[in-house]
Design goal:
mainly alpha; Glycerol uptake facilitator protein; about 0% strand
Length: about 240
């Protein structure tokens, strides 16, 4: 069980690296005014592609928001942050081989803070099942698109580093936004979701019993261990003659 848990955790980290890589490439290579659309669609697609593996954070601000609201274990959060930074660095190396990179500009600190609120609040709503899993990619991708169009910010510290904006508000302001809007979401989340998941593992357990870290399927909402699990929801009774 321990080896399986470790393998799933590292698979989740690799998924975060791959997702961040392609999200950063979309941000670096798509010319304005289509950048926000490309980034939003990329995130929506990868939520469906990688959601069951890692939750598809692909953003240090989102990861921080999930950690401070206890949707993600801190140790897994550190792994995700390292993977996201590695994916962004790899994108920075690959992007110039595909097309010349234009100069990038950062939004105001207030714009970055407010913009990341669109994304963090939506991810937390999805994580508590306010949004069905079938609509998770649409909701999260649309939230990122709305935040980008509204504030003209980067809204992702990893992508800010890939753009060479490490010395600007694009690096720290999204993290500050996660610290603001993450706890704010707790004011309207159900009280049962404020409690840590009753699990002996360091990762969340989804409804199917897997130990894969999936923030929108917390263990608190899993099937109760005190109720016997049947192989089928349909029961049959013998026909009397």
């Amino acid at each position: 069980m321990g080896d399986l848990l470790k393998r799933q955790t590292w698979q989740a980290g690799l998924a975060e690296l791959v997702g961040t890589l392609f999200l950063a490439l979309a941000a670096l290579l798509t010319p304005a005014p289509y950048t926000a659309l490309a980034v939003g669609l990329t995130l929506a697609a990868f939520v469906y592609a990688l959601g069951d593996i890692s939750g598809c954070n692909v953003n240090p601000a989102v990861t921080l928001g999930l950690v401070v609201t206890r949707r993600l274990p801190p140790a897994v959060g550190v792994l995700y942050l390292a993977a996201q930074l590695a994916g962004a660095a790899l994108a920075r190396l690959l992007a110039p081989l595909i097309a010349p990179l234009p100069p990038y500009a950062a939004a105001t600190p207030a714009g970055e803070i407010v913009g990341v609120g669109f994304l963090v609040l939506t991810v937390l709503a999805v994580s508590t099942k306010f949004v069905p899993k079938s609509g998770s990619g649409v909701a999260i991708g649309a939230a990122l698109l709305a935040g980008l169009l509204t504030t003209r910010g980067v809204l992702n510290p990893a992508i800010a580093l890939a753009m060479g904006l490490g010395g600007t508000a694009a690096l720290w302001a999204p993290l500050a936004g996660a610290l603001v809007f993450g706890p704010l979401a707790l004011l309207y989340l159900p009280s049962s979701d404020k409690k840590p998941a009753p699990s002996t593992h360091t990762t969340s357990v989804n409804a199917r019993g897997s130990s894969v870290v999936r923030p929108w399927r917390p263990a608190a909402t899993s099937r109760s261990s005190h109720r016997p699990r049947t192989s089928s929801p349909i029961t049959f009774t013998a026909r009397r003659k």
